[in-house]
Specification:
The complex is a heterodimer of chains A (about 240) and B (about 350). Chain A has about 240 residues and is of the alpha/beta class. Helices cover about 35% and strands about 25% of the residues of chain A. Chain A has a single domain, classed as Rossmann fold. Chain A has nine helices and twelve strands. Chain B is globular, with a radius of gyration of 21 Å. Classes of the chains: A alpha/beta (about 240), B mainly alpha (about 350).
């Protein structure tokens, strides 16, 4: 049984007739230019956007789930995260337990270990660097122990060290019998870490499959409007605009 | 390594948080004691209370039970309502400058109460009429403000609050303008300045249910207040109903503000400053801020009322005037501090 099975999923004109699935243990990369509909698709899966079409989460019809049930299955890490109050890291991670209505300390500690934030657990969020914060937001999402984690451009403003760290942590989470969908702009990292890729363009999924199937020069050049150099043989894979 | 210090069990913030509620409770008892003991005539507090509770018609019982006790309890409850609503509003609007007065709710409540005062509306409700009107006014202004502010962007919330409080202020000026006689106007202006003197125990029957109902509504939604720290999208994605919960918190806040304004007029800045003082003591958590803010609000308003009574003057300085005099400079300091975040 697939974790997510979506058929003809549409969100007004921003996502058109998307059909895709997510398997257990899989990390699915969502790629495409700005405005392609990646965030809208993720938000609709998290219940933040109304959609038409069929969607099943872990075999259950999406509309039959209560908001609480949905939140326990699907965790969302939006593109922009911030805390208005100067909360401590452990308190922010604790907020991730809200779908369960408890303060399960084991889950919180485990999430902090996974995201490697334990060493600054009692520091305040506004005293942390961008890379440290990115991991705190991840830990917050992990604390809810969602079966499916949706992560929207988690590495957008990080240096290459933290980019790798975050991708490894996400991959590790997917491997623990969960599923991860991650929207990315860095195609090289997408090729390197994702099991499968969905390429979106103007609201449509124009191609999906393995890196070899999706990251082809003609397809990428057409979608991004620039000539693209693709070398998937290289370790790590290289995909760059010429 | 300095970081590991934070993880030790003796973390000063944790230790302070453990003692917070007992210390505040003790302070409430002390300030109540002091307030009961203060007056033009020295009266033994214990004897007076004892006599009053047993229905004895002694001189002490009269002074303590009929004059000082209502005033003290009223000051405590008004302060608690203001502190609680301030903490709830700041959490709901995700804005450290939100305050009953700044979002227009106090003016709305005052307008409602003043209108009833003049036109004799809701006559069937008797002494509850002004409270009901204050509640209606506060609810209306708060909901219009929330609609106008929409997304809850900090700057927009303040602008919407300013617009609505200006509107309510203008409408209040119209009511004053057409006051039937100068005495009525004077009475109204004095009431608006804010005071807890010369109100009987009856007023408590407005305030206590309001504290209970308004406080419970907000307390019930404390998880939402916590989740809103990370924004409404995150709260929604975690399975909370943000729209419904926000309305309940706004309603709870309006009940608290409506009741306290209809009983004691405008007592400014308490709802703004109290959550600020308490925030570092509760690790900045908005849901943990509620009860300590109510307690400190009670303490500060009662202390301010003690000051009002202790200042020797012919005409008594109004409580609301004193809190504004003390609160405004602190507000300026807050704006100065917040400036760094906004620029």
């Amino acid at each position: 049984m697939d974790l997510i099975s979506a058929t003809k999923l549409s969100v007004d004109s921003r996502v058109k007739q998307a059909c895709f699935n997510l398997k257990k243990g899989e990390m699915l990369g969502l790629i495409g230019p700005n405005g392609a509909g990646k965030s809208t698709l993720l938000n609709s899966l998290a219940g933040l956007e109304k959609f038409t079409g069929e969607l099943q989460i872990n075999g259950q019809v999406f509309d039959s789930l209560s908001p609480k049930q949905r939140a326990r299955l699907v965790g969302l890490q939006p593109q922009i995260m911030d805390s208005i109050w100067s909360l401590s890291v452990s308190d922010i991670v604790g907020l991730g337990r809200i779908p369960w209505g408890d303060a399960n300390n084991d889950a919180i500690q485990c999430a902090m270990r996974k995201a490697k934030v334990t060493e600054f657990a009692e520091r305040r969020i506004d005293h942390l660097s961008g890379g440290e914060r990115a991991r705190v937001w991840l830990a917050r999402a992990f604390a809810g122990e969602p079966l499916i984690l949706l992560s929207d451009e988690p590495i957008a403003s990080l240096d290459i060290h933290f980019q790798l760290e975050v991708m490894k942590v996400l991959k590790g989470y997917a491997k623990e019998h969960h599923g991860v969908i991650v929207a990315l702009h860095d195609l090289s990292l997408a090729a390197r870490f994702c099991d499968r890729l969905c390429l979106m363009h103007e609201g449509e999924i124009v191609s999906q499959g393995t890196a070899e199937e999706v990251l082809t020069n003609p397809l990428l050049s057409n979608v991004y409007g620039v000539d693209v150099e693709v070398d998937l043989e290289h370790s790590p894979p290289i995909i760059l605009a010429k | 390594m300095p970081r590991s210090m934070d993880l030790e069990p003796g973390n000063p913030v944790t230790t302070m948080a453990t003692f917070l509620i007992p210390v505040l409770s003790l302070s409430i008892l002390l300030v109540t004691w002091f307030s009961l003991g203060l007056g033009s005539v020295p009266v033994p507090v214990v004897d007076g209370l004892w006599d009053w509770l047993h229905g004895a018609q002694s001189h002490e019982a009269l002074i303590i039970g009929e004059v000082r006790l209502p005033r003290t309890l009223l000051a405590l409850s008004v302060g608690a309502a203001l502190g609680f609503s301030g903490a709830a509003l700041q959490g709901l609007l995700r804005n450290p400058l939100a305050e009953p007065g700044l979002v227009g709710a106090s003016q709305g409540a005052a307008l409602g109460a003043a209108t009833v005062f003049y036109f004799g509306l809701f006559a069937g409700l008797g002494s509850l009429a002004t409270a009901a009107a204050g509640l209606l006014g506060a609810t209306a202004t708060l909901f219009i403000m929330l609609m106008l502010a929409g997304s809850g962007h900090p700057a927009l919330v303040i602008m919407a609050g300013l617009a609505i409080s200006t509107l309510a202020g203008a409408a209040l000026a119209v009511v004053l303008n057409f006051a039937p006689n100068p005495y009525a106007m004077q009475e109204l202006v004095f009431w608006l300045l804010g005071s807890v003197s010369n109100r009987g125990l009856d007023s408590l029957w407005v305030l206590l249910p309001a504290l209970l109902i308004g406080g419970s509504l907000i307390w019930w939604q404390r998880r939402l207040l916590a989740a809103l720290s990370l924004g409404d999208r995150i709260a929604e994605s975690m399975g909370l109903s943000v729209a419904r919960g926000s309305r309940l918190i706004a309603l709870g806040t309006a009940i608290l503000i409506g009741a306290s304004v209809s009983v004691a007029g405008n007592i400014g800045f308490v709802g703004l400053l109290v959550p600020h003082i308490m925030r570092p003591w509760v690790n900045h958590r908005p849901e943990r801020l509620l009860i300590p803010s109510a307690m400190l609000g009670a303490i500060l308003v009662c202390m301010a009322d003690i000051c009002v009574r202790a200042i020797p003057s012919g005409t008594e300085l109004k409580l609301g005037v004193l809190t504004s005099l003390l609160g405004a400079p602190l507000f300026i300091w807050l704006v100065w501090k917040e400036r760094r975040r906004w620029i």
